[in-house]
């Protein structure tokens, strides 16, 4: 396993832009960003075309600009465009979009776990870096982090072959009172929302109970967290034996700060508590408390419901 110094050599990090612009199809950073946006917008309703106004809003451009770019993508075989209706990615466009998602989420994870970024800072940085780093750099990050399954926000990281692990989850605002749940994924990556999630400890892997829902007041109350929370620890490169054990197991073999390997989402001596993984250590359970949220915010928090009996109070 290479050292961090070797990993970030300039020849490993940056592509030669001039060479990329001479490639057939001219896959520029703008093209990469558009296909990624179309992919994420289309995931919400795969059966429907993605409308130009949604693409324009996500890219912060006018609908006319978005339409012109989509026509350009269509000419290069990345999308199928239906005038006045919308577009969807071709297989080639989907492959490029998933590749960019993999880059983005691995870079986010690297920034948080290795460089000490706050999880509210990593999205904007990854948006810049994902278009500049080489494929070799991305794969070295994956190995260095011991093949993480999710990024800091709980988003699944596509494998090198383009597979995306599916996990059953529902929005928090769809649960009924009294249900225990584990936070799986945070959909809003704005710094303000992520700061709120950190202050209330509604972090991927943490477990709560939905204590009350008040439709009249438009609020819901959660109590927790119950499970030990993963906290940052000083970053430490995994031992070679750990990496060899994890090789060939995409998404498996997360390594905690102590260097001992365990399956993603497992906690030594206890039940699964989420997939936080490499570069972390378990702490004592945080003091459980109440948090009141607006009901509409629950749509941005994906959770896994757990109605097992005999759980902690609150």
The count of domains is 2
CATH fold field value of the largest domain? SH3 type barrels
The count of DSSP E runs of length 2 or more, i.e. the number of strands, is 10
Oligomeric category: single chain
Please give a structural write-up.
With 314 residues, the protein is of the alpha+beta class. The chain folds into two domains: 1-145, Arc Repressor Mutant, subunit A, CATH 1.10.10; 167-314, SH3 type barrels, CATH 2.30.30.90. 34% of the residues lie in helices and 16% in strands. The chain contains eleven helices and ten strands. The strands form three sheets. The protein has a six-stranded antiparallel sheet, with no helix packed on it. Strands 1-2 form a two-stranded antiparallel ribbon. β5 (207-214) and β6 (219-224) form a beta hairpin. The radius of gyration is 21 Å and the shape is globular.
Concise overview:
The chain has 314 residues and is of the alpha+beta class.
Features:
alpha+beta, Arc Repressor Mutant, subunit A, SH3 type barrels, 2 domains, six-stranded antiparallel β-sheet, two-stranded antiparallel sheet, 10 strands, 34% helix
């Amino acid at each position: 396993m290479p050292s961090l110094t070797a990993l970030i050599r300039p020849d490993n990090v940056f592509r030669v832009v001039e060479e990329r612009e001479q490639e057939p199809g001219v896959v520029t950073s703008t093209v990469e960003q558009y296909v990624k946006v179309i992919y994420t917008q289309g995931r919400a309703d795969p059966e429907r075309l993605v409308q130009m106004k949604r693409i324009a809003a996500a890219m912060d451009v006018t609908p006319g600009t978005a339409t012109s770019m989509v026509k350009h993508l269509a000419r290069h075989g990345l999308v199928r465009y239906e005038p006045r209706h919308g577009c969807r990615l071709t297989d080639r466009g989907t492959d490029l979009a998933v590749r960019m998602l993999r880059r983005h989420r691995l870079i986010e994870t690297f920034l948080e776990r290795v460089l000490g970024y706050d999880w509210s800072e990593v999205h904007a940085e990854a948006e810049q870096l994902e278009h500049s780093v080489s494929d070799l750099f991305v794969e070295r990050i994956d190995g260095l982090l011991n093949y993480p399954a999710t990024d800091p926000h709980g988003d699944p990281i596509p494998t090198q072959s383009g597979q995306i692990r599916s996990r059953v989850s529902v929005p928090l605002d769809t649960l009924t009172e009294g249900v225990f749940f584990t936070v799986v994924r945070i959909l809003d990556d704005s710094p303000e929302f992520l700061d709120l999630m950190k202050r209330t400890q509604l972090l991927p892997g943490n477990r709560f109970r939905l204590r009350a829902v008040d439709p009249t007041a438009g609020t819901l109350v959660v109590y927790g967290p119950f499970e030990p929370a993963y906290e940052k620890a000083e970053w430490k490169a995994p031992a070679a034996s750990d990496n060899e054990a994890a090789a060939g197991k995409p998404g498996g073999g997360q390594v905690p700060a102590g260097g001992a390997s365990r399956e993603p989402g497992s906690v030594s001596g206890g039940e699964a508590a989420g997939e936080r993984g490499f570069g972390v250590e378990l702490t004592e359970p945080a003091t459980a408390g109440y948090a009141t949220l607006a009901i509409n915010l629950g749509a941005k928090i994906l959770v896994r419901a757990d109605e097992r009996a005999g759980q902690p109070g609150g």
